[in-house]
UniProtKB/TrEMBL annotation:
One of its GO terms (biological process) is D-alanine transmembrane transport. Pfam families: ABC_tran (PF00005), BCA_ABC_TP_C (PF12399). GO terms for cellular component: plasma membrane. It comes from Streptomyces qinzhouensis. Transmembrane segments: none annotated. This is ABC transporter ATP-binding protein. The keyword Amino-acid biosynthesis does not apply.
Length: 307
């Protein structure tokens, strides 16, 4: 299903007709999605549905084969650092911290897109650089307090427990002062307590005026957190709506359980394969296996041993 999106003054992200092909594989097919200010939007879908590929198209890691992506009405440049500079920050499915740097240093790295001091100023450590450095440290410490990591500012990132490493990734993303934050599986590997804390943190980020788009497999988390949810299946947007609408949609349930329904992307191909298999097993003698091995015809009852 594709919905018509209307650009309003409130639209932060507007992705229209985004398609990404890798050779013969269409990983994302003509996906439209908007995120408005004050919103937390969820992106769900089974493994391989194209969620991360779609994120990569939004953040300049991939240049979409077709479609366009705008942030606050301006087309996003096709380079990750320029996308960050424009106001879109992200975290990754696999944590990407500088593990041998301290927690504070990791956040300072995320701050560099917002500092204007050049290389010479940094090397000569002039007054402009010192002032900018002090401001960056102050902002970084604020973010560490906001994410609950201030007491660990001097710890090496690699020594943080897993849940805190994920929080640190978020703090680092926030250091670029984004208007939109993209989170790719922020609770992956977390225990229930850490997941609840992550939920509170994302609500707090939204309350600071940052729109959020989040990919997640934990359905309870996503339906509790999001104002709107879109479900991708085999690269296409299948359903979009409120958490109540999406979780009650039989097509979403079927996609997760792997049961294709009429009209689902790929359902026709699955039906064809099933019909061909049924025809082949109907025409083959039950006790004959074409390759001389075991017959593929299965009976429903317990198999009897032949004497
Ligand atoms: N760089 C690439 N080159 C070729 N194929 C790719 C590439 N990246 C992704 N794909 C393919 O695109 C499809 C979508 O993958 P993607 O990782 O976007 O799915 P996903 O919904 O994020 O899955 P998961 O929930 O498992 O992370 C998959 O078939 C994947 O193998």
């Amino acid at each position: 299903m594709t919905t018509t999106t209307t650009t309003t003054a409130e639209t932060v992200l507007d992705a229209g007709g985004v398609t990404m092909r890798f050779g013969g594989l269409t990983a994302v097919r003509s996906v439209d999605l908007t995120v408005n200010s004050g919103e937390i939007v969820g992106l769900i879908g089974p493994n391989g549905a194209g969620k991360t590929t779609f994120f990569n198209c939004l953040t300049g890691l991939y240049i979409p084969t077709e479609g366009r992506v705008t942030y606050k009405g301006t087309v996003l440049p096709p380079k990750p650092h320029l996308v960050t500079q424009a106001g879109v920050a992200r975290t990754f499915q696999n944590i990407r911290l500088f593990s041998n740097m301290t927690v504070l240093e990791n956040v300072l790295v995320g701050r560099h897109t917002r500092t204007k001091e050049g290389l010479w100023s940094a090397l000569l450590r002039g007054p402009g650089f010192k002032r900018a450095e002090a401001e960056s440290r102050e902002r970084a410490m604020e973010l560490l307090s906001f994410t609950g990591l201030a007491a660990k500012a001097d710890h090496l990132a690699r020594n943080l427990p897993y849940g805190e490493q994920r929080k640190l990734e978020i703090a680092r993303a926030l250091a670029s002062d984004p208007g939109l934050l993209l989170l790719d599986e922020p609770t992956a590997g977390m225990n229930p307590q850490e997941t609840r804390a992550a939920e509170d943190l994302i609500f707090a980020i939204r309350d600071q005026g940052i729109a959020v788009l989040v990919i997640e497999h934990d359905m309870r988390f996503i339906f509790n957190l999001c104002d709107r949810v879109a479900c991708l299946v085999q690269g296409e947007k299948l359903v979009e709506g409120s958490p109540e609408v999406v979780q009650g949609d039989e097509r979403v349930v079927a996609a997760y359980l792997g049961t294709p329904f009429e009209g689902a992307p790929g359902a026709e191909e699955v039906a064809e394969v099933e019909a061909a298999e049924a025809e082949a097993s109907a025409s083959a003698p039950a006790d004959a296996a074409p390759d001389g091995g075991e017959s593929t015809t299965r009976t429903t009852g317990p198999e009897k041993e032949t004497p």
